[in-house]
Amino acid sequence: MSFNSLIFLFAFLPFVLIVYYSLSLSRLHLLRLPFLVLATLGFYAHAQPRYVPLLLVSIIINYLLAILIVRTENPKVKQRWLILGVSANVATLIYLKYFSVVSGAVCGVFGASNPFINIMAPLAISFYTFQQIGFLVDVARGRIVLDGLMKYMAFVAFFPTLLSGPITLNQEIAPQLAARPDRERFAQNLLIGLVIFSFGLFKKTVFADTAALWADPVFNAAQSGASPGFFLSWGAAFTYTLQIYFDFSGYSDMAIGVARMLGVVLPLNFYSPLRSTSISELWRRWHMTLSRFVRMYIFQPLIIPLTRLSADRGYGRWKAFSVSMLLPTFLSMLIIGTWHGPSWTYVTFGLMHGTFMCINEIYNAITRKRRRGKLETRTVLFAYGLLTLLAFVSAEVPFRAESMSAAWQIFAGMAGLHGLGISQDWATSFSSGGNAMMIPIIAIGLSIVYMFPNTEQIMSRVRPALEWDKWRQVDPARFSFPFEFNIVWMGAVSVVLFFGFAFLSRGSTSFIYFKF
Amino acid sequence: MTTKNILPVDEMIEAGRAWRLMSVLLSGFAVLNILSVQLPHERYIRYQQFDYSDLFKLRWVYERIHDDPTPIDVAIIGSSRVEAALSAPELAAALGKRLDRPIHVANLAVPYEGRNLHYIIVKELLESHPETRLILISVVERADISHPAFRYVADTRDILDAPLMISHYYAEDAAYLPYRQMSYFVQSIVPSWFGKSLVMRKDYLGTDFDSTKSFRIPRGRLIDRGLVAPMQKLKNEAAELKAGLGNTDGYWVQPSAWYTLNEPLEPEYTARIAALAKQHGAFVVFVHLPFYSSRPWQYDHAAYERLGPLLDAQQFSDDAQFYADGGHFNRFGIEKISPWIASAIDPYLDSLRSSNISPR
Lengths: 516, 360
Description:
The complex is a heterodimer.
Chain A: H1 6-24, H2 32-47, H3 52-71, H4 75-110, H5 125-140, H6 149-156, H7 159-162, H8 170-178, H9 186-223, H10 230-261, H11 279-285, H12 288-313, H13 317-339, H14 344-371, H15 378-400, H16 404-414, H17 438-451, H18 455-458, H19 468-471, H20 487-504
Chain B: H1 3-6, H2 15-37, H3 43-46, H4 57-66, E1 74-77, H5 80-85, H6 88-99, E2 105-107, H7 115-128, E3 134-138, H8 150-153, H9 156-160, H10 170-189, E4 215-216, E5 222-223, H11 231-244, H12 257-262, H13 265-279, E6 283-288, H14 301-305, E7 310-312, E8 323-325, E9 328-329, H15 331-344, H16 350-353
Parallel strand pairs in B: 1-2, 1-3, 3-6, 6-7
Antiparallel strand pairs in B: 4-5, 8-9
Helix pairs in contact in B: 2-10, 4-7, 6-15, 7-13
């Protein structure tokens, strides 16, 4: 079930809220979490009923492993249980998400049919697997006190975050879920959640789905072997970047909004990343909880032993820098790319970002002394921002393309190898403006990205996300219109909600991140 | 412990005020939806939404009904199966000869099943052409689905008046109205921005557009009426049909109560069409064009016969030469169907013989 579906908006969500709060505010409040878990299973089953048992088994086994880790005194045995748990999760993920494609490729080489062709990746498996790996590691590190299976189930099977994140930590969500909702805040949370959700719905249906109308025809044509020209290729790359930007931003707002309606505050997941002035900053602001997971559970565990190794072996400055910084950075980005799916296009996406990040780190290392204590001029910051934007837009090409051949067609177009190619027959024809409409769409989209505050900045005074104080002052937008509890704001949000809802029926696409 | 104890304190408002503000927000949302549905637009715009799709003929349907001054004595309504098989010019010629006066036949059928769209077309037809006396309507085996074009071309009232709130399509159709009305409103103001027009196009397909002859969908594929389907394809489709209808011995099976409860569109709208026709003094005749190799009475013939006479072309079902695919006749089939239909409707031509009503 998707947040941008009628059944979710008008049946599932109201039903869950009514029952959840009826239970919470009554003597039956102990049934609150079991109900939430059941609701989430229904939410999941609406899309993929056959994988509900897998989700349940995964939750139960991980919890049992956590118990074993906690009860084991011997650190080495504890470590073994952790390795077993992490390996089992990773193996399940690899088998269900990657094995069919890899075996298909191998069988293809030998001209054999693929015996694993029917394996279909379960919805959300990447998200709940990562979430549970993080849980096991934190249990082993002693950061989490186990608090019962039901609370753990409610943490993993929490429908606002289950399908596409944010990838939350047990220690930040479980205490909120365990606490009984506060009667005084119940109405306020509903209202704040609805406002945040409305912004998310609007971004998804009005902005993201509109951008898709122009990006899709070009990428689809490239997949069919067409050769889009320079302007059309860049136009498609930019419109797709805007599509995924507003799609994921909208999704993250909707998840935060729905969770807030239930009285739960989620971590930030998206913070105007295209306004970043470096690719590493961009990744701290795009899919923030995935980046956090990779940093906490992959990058940091890699960087410490590699730094030690460099020191032990007496590597020189650049060799040590390469081994202890560039290698884990590159590997982390490669893992992020491959996490999206078993396709060379995602591997290429990861490789490109890994390369960009390494260049960024090398540049920082070279210029650190020169820049120390100096503020960059606006022109320099603009140049950094532009370079970051172009790098990101380029990497979105393989991310969106259905095959590497389609990605090469677009890349060739962007390099001018197919001529200028402003209007091809196969391109979009939704209006008499045709492909030229890409220009105002890109201009409007980028203006919103660069000039307007993000949802969290608008909602700043009601603490829209966890650790908000750390972000409150980061990168303020040129325009500012903070939310207030008054009738004017309610009127404005009702307009936002109305357009979000109306455009939903135009023919909304599925959230891009649902397929991961 | 409550969430108040574990989350940082933020700006608080009283619960009563929060409820009042929420009611303002939701009321504003409701009012905007209601207002948007009231937005005016040109009806012709609705029928131009499919210009480059399989349903491109809808625009011609509108133009034939509203802008073409030629009367319509006999109308053909249904899906692509009757669109492909019943030639309006051939039927007009045969009837004209029989009645010794010019008879005008319009094949207003469009691809895809969905009786609710047929109702909308019949409504448009009878409001604009009171001279219409005979309506030939396709029989549907079991395709009680909403037509994909219904929500685009129906009046707001027709969408909201759709039968039974439990219809699978009701919520989606109704939810589409705000966007549709806003979109059509803007398209009516600046039609050229959207490649639309407020007046009949110069390259109108003509009164005698014959969809039983091969044509090409604008910017799209060729619809080849001369195609003869491969035998194996026909056999496969026949097997699929039997499986789909839930019977193997070839006779119509009463759908389950659940099916009837959830999918009331086909019988409901067929009855509405019959009632509307009766109200306007038109006569409804049902025409069954069989799938290849289907057995007799693989549909609820009794229900149709309660509403009007039923003509069945079952005798052509076993000749593979007549089929372009499992459900559509080709030119060889059409050449057999045309004389058959002209002859079969003979008992129901009385209304045409006495007709002296002028078009609007």
